[in-house]
Every structure is written in structure tokens, then in C-alpha cells.
Amino acid sequence: MQDKNGCLVERHRGTSQGGVASRLLANLFLHYAFDRWITQNLRSVRFCRYADDGVVHCKSLAQAQLALRRIGERFRQCGLELHSEKTRIVYCKDSNRRKSYPAIKFTFLGYTFRPRKVRNKYGRMFVNFSPAVSCDALHMMRQTIRNWHIQLKGDKELGDLSSMYNPVLRGWSNYYGLFHGSAMTPVWKHMNFYLTRWLMRKYKHLSWHKTRAYKLLGKLAASSPKAFAHWEMGFAP
What we know:
By secondary structure, the protein is of the alpha+beta class. It is 46% helix and 13% strand.
């Protein structure tokens, strides 16, 4: 292991944080410390775990409190502890569960689960407890687009930008757009904004004409709808 001064120090215990071995060993440890234990000792609950994040589904508050207490005890036996801020009991409020509790939403794997208004197959509105892309994930994607500095790539053509960035956009769409895809709208608008700035920097006659550049981007989207994943879905200028 290399310390902050650049000196190599022999490691006798533990693994480096973020290393491949750390993730593998952590998953193996949690498989026995949590997955198999909860399957054998809390058979009436269902759970989902990814790395060190997990969700336990319970049918009542009493069952949730019991599960939380038992899991906390199990973790202490294994030399672990639950995250004091992230670990909490959440009420899945919807049209059928209408009681009031302080916590009615949670975030898991980039999705925020909370009560949302949806329309059923008969066109009637109701409240469902469902997922959509989280605010943190939206911020991360917009920040990534800013870091691409598309507006500075005036030497590139539309096809070049498509080859460079569309695989990433499609990956976001396939993952975060799976549920309530309209929640991804701010990301697609952000991408169109930077493509507009790219046109304004690329062509001198559009330098100070944002509206004209935006209209030109719309024409490009109409002629090449498959250039970007969000254009294909109808989020074109």
C-alpha cells in the first residue's frame, strides 16, 4: 500500500477501499453475514441487496421494527453497524395505504421511490408508490454533460458527437428511463442546450442567435432522429 507521502507500506490487515478485491470480499462476507442469515432467521420478510445497500420489505410497522432490531444485532455480532442516517423505516404510501408517517420515500440504486400520481388503463388517476430517477442521479448526469464541453468541439460533425456520446445517453435511458421516463426530461433538455451552444460556436452566423441555432438543431434532429437516444424517443428541439 502507498501512503500519502508516496512510501510503500506492507499491509497485514484489510484491503484498499474501492479496490476490486475489496468489493469481492465484501460481497462474499455480506452473503453470509446478511443474505443467508436473513433468509434463515427472518423468513417472513423479503429483501434486496446490492453491495452494501439494501431494502427489506415488511408488512407492518411492528415487523419492520423487529427486523431492524434483529439486523442491527446481527451486524454488531459481525463487527458491522447500520448507517445511522441512511437506515430508516419508510411507509410505502399509496391509494390503499393512506396513513401518515414521517418517512414516505427512499432512494435505492439511483431511483427514488415515493408516492406518485399515475393513470390506470381506464384513464383514472390514482396514487402509486413507484420509482423514478433520483435528484442526485439527475445532477450527476447533467454534470457529466457539462464536463464533456460539447460547445468547444466545433471541429466535430453531428455524426462524430453521436459516436462519442450517444452510447452513454442510451445507457442512461435504458437504466434510468425504465420507470417514469418523463423524469429524465431535464437531462435531455440539458443535452439539447449544449448541442445548441455547439452550433453557435461552430457557425459564425449563429454566434449570437440562440433561437436560430435551436431551430437548426431541430432540423438536424428531424433529419437524423437516431443520432441521439433522446431524439429517438421524441425529446428533440
